[in-house]
Design brief:
alpha/beta; 6-stranded mixed beta sheet; 8 strands; globular
């Protein structure tokens, strides 16, 4: 059940968390969601790296003064995907239907399908029939709103709106298709079973999500690492969802920050760890330091 929460929170189309090697990296990480990125050869050219949580309650959402200050000094907003891309929704919808005529009612037992249908109506206000032919993670995204327990807010969307208002350029690190390729590595049956586990253990699911939010609001990256280490799953899954993507992002980030001041906003789980963006940028020679206060 926790795996589906983490997966739902990880992607910008839904949301955030993850990372690895918590204990060994603890001294190097520091407790902050906002980091300065400076090329020692050109110290005046500062960019910023911000860890987001893609789905969070409005009551827990906040653009703090330090975030606003860093944003105001930036010329480009870099997010996981460019939310201003007019073709994004069309691309996503072309990839959400299960292949070979597979449907949820074929993946689940009759009893589990009825259980999920009842939960969707009572708690999400949506008929499961809308999701029957779609990949199970789509239903997970709808269900997550129940566990947020308030109107959801999106750092990605708010930052994009701020960038548009202030006239910043907006760049995406990957496409919707690339994100969908990662999600597709989890078999339909496993996705469907995780849905049932998620709604069968409501109180545990709520507490797992609450732990993630508490760690995020406290800016405790090492706590987020531990949550992932405990619940993310196999090393191959971590690599696909985090490490491989981080490695692909580094040259894209480098190219842009060498030209202009950037505000880079990605899921907080991408920041720490041996293969996290903080460490990878340091390996490239950048000074990456936490911003407090």
């Amino acid at each position: 059940m926790k795996k589906v929460i983490l997966r739902s929170l990880l992607f910008s189309l839904a949301t955030f968390v993850s990372v690895q090697n918590a204990v060994s990296q603890e001294a190097k990480v520091g407790n902050s969601m906002l980091w300065s990125v400076v090329d020692p050869k050109s110290p005046a050219d500062t960019s910023y790296l911000f860890g987001t949580i893609h789905q969070i309650s409005q009551k827990d959402f906040e653009i703090t003064r330090k975030i606003q200050n860093a944003f105001d000094k930036s010329q480009i907003l870099i997010t996981e995907i460019d939310l201003t891309d007019t073709g994004m929704v069309v691309e996503m919808m072309s990839r959400v239907i299960m292949e070979d005529g597979m449907t949820l009612d074929k993946l689940l037992t009759k009893e589990d399908y009825q259980l999920l249908s009842k939960f969707m109506i009572e708690n999400a206000g949506l008929p499961l029939a809308l999701y029957n032919d779609k990949k199970p993670f789509m239903a997970a995204m709808a269900i997550m709103n129940f566990f947020i327990e308030d109107a959801p807010a999106s750092y990605d969307m708010v930052l994009t709106q701020m960038a548009q208002k202030q006239g910043l350029e907006i760049h995406g690190l990957e496409t919707v298709a690339e994100q969908m390729d990662v999600l597709d590595q989890t078999p339909y049956k496993e996705q469907a079973d995780q849905l049932i586990e998620m709604i069968s253990n409501v109180e545990e699911t709520k507490e797992s999500y609450a732990q993630i939010v508490r760690a995020y609001k406290a800016e405790h990256l090492e706590d987020l690492q531990k949550l992932l280490d405990e619940n993310m799953g196999a090393a191959g899954e971590k690599s696909a969802m985090l490490d491989d993507r981080n490695i692909k992002w580094i040259p894209k980030i480098q190219k842009v920050i060498e030209e202009k001041h950037c505000f880079i906003a990605v899921g907080a789980g991408h920041l720490p760890g041996e293969m996290g963006l903080i460490n990878l940028l340091r390996d490239e020679g950048y000074e990456v330091n936490p911003i407090f206060g």
